[in-house]
Target: Site-specific DNA-methyltransferase (adenine-specific)
Amino acid sequence: MKYKNIREEELKNKVGADWFKQFDTTEILGNIDFTVFPQQDNLFGRTPLLWAEAKTGNFDVATMFVQLILTIGKARTFDKTMPPAFLGAFDFKKIAFVPYINIQDIFYLNDFNWNVTPSNHETKEFQLIKQRIEATLKQNTYVYDYEKDEKELKAFIKNNVAKATTTNKLKIDKNNFIPIYLRWLEIIKPIIDVNWDDLKKANILDSDFYLADLFVDDNNTQNIDDDLSIRDSLFVVFQNQGYKIAKENLKQMFDATITLKNKDTYLHFWKRYKRPPLKEFQDYIIERRDLLVPQDIRERKGAFFTPRIWVELSQKYLTDYLGENWQDDYYIWDCAAGTGNLLAGLTNKYNIYASTLDQADVNVMHERIDHGANLLKNNVFQFDFLNDDFSKLPQSLQDIINDEEKRKKLVIYINPPYAETGSTKHKVSKSGVSNETMIHKKLFEQMSTFSKRELYVQFLMRIYFEIPNCKIANFSTLKNLQSSYFIEFREMFRAKLEKIFVVPADTFDNVKGKFPIGFFIWNSEKKEKFEEIISDVYNLRGEYIDAKKIFSYNNEKYLNDWLRPTWDNVKNEIGFLACNSNDFQNQNGIFIEIVKKNQTSTYFKPIGLSNLLKSSIYYAVRHCIPATWLNDRDQFLYPNDNWQTDFEFQNDCLTFTLFNNDIQSQYDINHWIPFTEYEVNAQAKFESNFMTNFIKGKMQQEATTDTLFEQATTKESKPLVFSEVATAVFDAGRELWKYYHAQKDVNVNASLYDIREYFQGRNDKGRMNSKSDDATYTQLLAELRSKLAILADKIKPKVYEYGFLKE
Model:
């Protein structure tokens, strides 16, 4: 092999010398292994040609690219310098290239933790990125063997990498219009003489000024009137060395020209870029203007870009339900259309209506119609669905809504905004989102604060009550089906749910979190209170993976109700159980502490002798089944009584809890040590033997004494008997404790958390490292976790059998 058995630095030097000698490969850019730049600066600086990951072993291409992506994303390198034409990855045998534009969207993932260590290939973030880009890499990656493909590699570098450099102004395309915007924010926005708060109230954002700059012709900076399609799509235009608000795009008029405080700064900035953007990318930039809008504004306005894969799938489901000719037989109205991407693929433009909150989005759709979009301009209009009266609708649509029979043939097809507002005792949400709408005031007197603050619920309620007997096809979360806060909604909204599929929420642009988003088909002509339905389930690639039953939980008592009566009987606490809400969404909020750190929190409940077993059952039931995007909204319920006589189940849950918690002895006496000093060869006596005394049946009931930890043994309970699987967990744990106590300078009262911290240490940010250099410890911990996983699998069927979860 060409570069076998050499170190990484030598590999990078040789690759640079052998393949990129006509370029500069010496520049260090953050933690990126290898960069390629043009040899000479031009008047406007240097644009990078290649950022690459280097590996000395023989790695698969996807793994190398994922590490590079995580490195770039962690440092947000693309915010600090112009991104390159290509990303690369190479090892001792091969080198691969992928156009940066093909993976650019990955850097704008919502709710993604970019702070993980890029070289740790075991993190969920690493696996998520790998899963997201594998299909893209298969289609767009160029891979060359140094020896077998020498000629082809040289040709690729000459014809692609080399030609990515430029000595002229940088051309604006869909690869760089976002990074240019980020620099524009730093340099140009501060010199625009305007009150941004006033403009924001009128839904005019800094990105509108950037687009005005972007679509100026450098040969004539004062006039773009010749290109009416561009002008009509903009809120703001650049004229006479200043900005002008386009009157036709706003209800509220702004007449004055907005000037620049420093014209020299403005001119110097735009000298580097060739405006307007390349013609072939102009439609894309206009269509994806949502990427330039700040996150909070995008959420408030509901600027969600429905992925093409779910648009196509939703239309397939509509065809299956309404028939092959449904587009000819039914009228379709998307009343939350945005720029209209949900309507792509529909064929009968004479039956389609599209409305949206912002006139600018209407202009975008009109421009798309000019370029072949299958819509009618007269049927695409500005309309505020939650505030405007139906008298503002086109007459042809009013005729449909006002005709009882035609309404039955109307499909409201929408992906409405998922924003919510209002405050609860637990959190404060976005203000000014939904409480001010006409529909909120008109229809929501009988509904709770929780349900009526959801914008998509307001859409559904207006459709149901003011467009009766129509069909509703919408994307939304599952709150309206499952949340206890939406019981009133389910009482009032009696449309029959005919079909549903669910997909991961994070496949949608601008949607945060790991939870399901569903596509619902409702028939409001049929009156039925929702109770349950079987949903189809698709993964992020659009592959069918399962069927899942979704329940309403209309008349249920919850798991917290089951444990609540035990809290008043605890006299001497050995810890506190954090009892968050009753769904998988709040799994991370279920944990045990020795002390109640947050004294004002209502979530922390005492654990003592009287409720130790029941608290352990609660904890084990909540954690033995991993939380996923699919079960995120499933609710834990008040169980039936059969668990009471299943002592093996109870003891399995205690075992699971003892070896699966994050108790730290630094905060107080650790009463949770599952072994005696003799079992683990401890170097000194433990401060507490509470747990082993409890297991051996040596603990009296709390009512017989005021001092929990100095109890006589005259009224002993029977020793606990553990299953073979639970015993295996104890055995594995014992070996880990013994190994720890054989070390130097240990904390004799250490918890499992303390043991992990001892061997794994902490990084510069104070976080516990994910791995240890001690091979014996690593093996012992892996064995304990393996046995715990087997125990969790044993507990899971009982969770459903005893009604803690519905199946």
